[in-house]
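Example 3.2
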Amino acid sequence: MRNKPAYSVESVDHALRLAVLLQHEGPLRVSEAAERLGVARSTAHRLLAMLVYRDFAVQTGDRRYQAGGVLRRPTATEPAATLRSVAVPHLRELVDRVGETANLMVLAGRQVRFVVSVECGQILRVGDREGKMLPAHLASGGRVLLARLSGDELDGLFGANAEYAGNTYELDEGTPIDRRNMHRALGQIRKQGFAVNNQATEIGVTAIGHAVGQVNAAVSLALPTARYAQQDLPGYVEALRIAAGRIEHELRVAGQGLAS
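Structure, written as tokens:
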């Protein structure tokens, strides 16, 4: 039997209970969430908004809330705590070097999950993405990780659409995409060693991603598109390559056995 901590944080407890309700009992309206938790509607609304922000929940068309990506998607096999502790110092060095927000993410099914973010100090900057999930085929880090998969592995992950002679992938996030185009794009990413996400996941945000060796992880830089310049790309890629190499080296030395 587990006893409630003597110094429990009520708001955290409410958020965790609400996440469990969404995961196990299905969609809820704000009024239903408030009733289940025994809180005011305004409190329930704030809790749900935070769960949506961290991808623990999504709002449906009928104004109900249901379990989001963090609660529904498969998780990566690497211990996130180890990846985080190893990566953070190197991400901080990366931020100091280029002056933009840095992230580390892992592949989780068709999505990438942000394990940690280190924000830069600029007033206009990309914020903390920790805990968020994005479609892997759109995110820069997701693209470099997908580029390491074989054609058969990609078919198994996304599923070729037989109705169109196996030439499209069915995606949960929207319209099916052309299988051959994806393979061609990933082949180019595999060759060049990095990927660019230019406003594919969020208008006004550009990101550059680089895989961390053979580990199921990638590092990325995210910056406002207004500050992104093509001539700066080689410098960003080199900084990412150095950070990724140092993270991989430290993991290898530590003997964590996190290779995919």
